[in-house]
Amino acid sequence: MDKWMDNPWFIKILALLLAVLLYSSVPHTGKKITDVNVPGEQSTATITNIPVNVYYDTENLVVSGIPSNVEITLKGPLTHIQTAKALKNFEVYVDLTKAKVGKQKVKVKVRNLSDKLTATVKPSSVTVSVQEKITKEFKVEAEFNKNQIDEGYSAGIPVVEPNKVKITGAKNIVDRISYVKATLETRNKLKDTITDEADIQVLDKDLNKLNVQVEPNTVKITIPVKSNTKTVPINIVRNGTAPEGVTIESIEIDKKEATVYGNESVLNNTERVRVEVDLSKITDNTTLTLPVIISNGITKVTPQLVKATVVVKKEEEKTLSDVPVTIKGLSDEYEATINDPENQLIDILVNGPASKVTRVKAEDFNVFIDVSNLEEGDHEVDIHVDGPSAVEWKPAKSSAKITIHKINA
To answer: What is this structure's pTM?
Structure first.
């Protein structure tokens, strides 16, 4: 029934039927009509959510405390109540055209209502605050969630456009403004500079939102985002020992530098990255694909893999027999006899690259003992060996036993 009552056509048809009913109830005798009896039924109805209009000096004043909606109870003939309920052709208002600055209690009034009806408004009066309206300019502070910046990236200082806004409101409210913020919200992790619109929030010192007018009410925020990178050298770390008979001649990698990503503080403490070569598994010339190893805090490295070329030289070993031992530093008035090694001959163990070892001969070595400043008698002295630098060697004996005596005149 309420839906029908809200339909204008239903009201019009109902009004027409009532008019016909009233017309038919009046006697038509051709005589002068002096009395008309109109049947009516008294009723009461309550209407909720009726908006309240406020009249005041909007250019210079700000009013607070007026409810946005009120409840009104109508009493009178049913037909009039139904018409008022359907058409809502009345106004609920508060008149503050002559109000003074400050708090005051005012009545909530109704007008344009049928004189057949009486109205009761709930609340019938309200306490309002009338304040002087002022406008001030404030700088906008941009905010964003720093956790939204992806790892390995950093955000610069946000740029706000426009960076100032005009705020209008009651003087006591505007005086409470401590923060004017525009917060840029995004769901995705940021890796690139972003520009977007953000609503402005006006807050007091306790971060309570204030009821004021902001012009404009949105601003454009640009957050510059850049990757944190640093170029560092790639070090080669040798692990383990090469197998016996294998000498590592060189290790070369195809990339000498790498780009690392991470927080600025981590990058400041990062001077190098590394690749590790396990020598124990290398028996011949080979090319390895190795990962670039980074320190804690580094989120990414480019390249992640490098190629290492390992050049080895295989060693060969042989013994040179009967290499003569000579005596140096002996005065002309003395003579010396080498008692050990026997026959003044020793063996030398030679090792090194096979191509070098095969060409080494006994004549390439100078084996001697130095008897300078030695007196007559028996002595044990070190055996010295000079030989080619391309190979390594070791004499079978490290010392010799000799006897020195004077030559008779």
So the answer is: 0.46
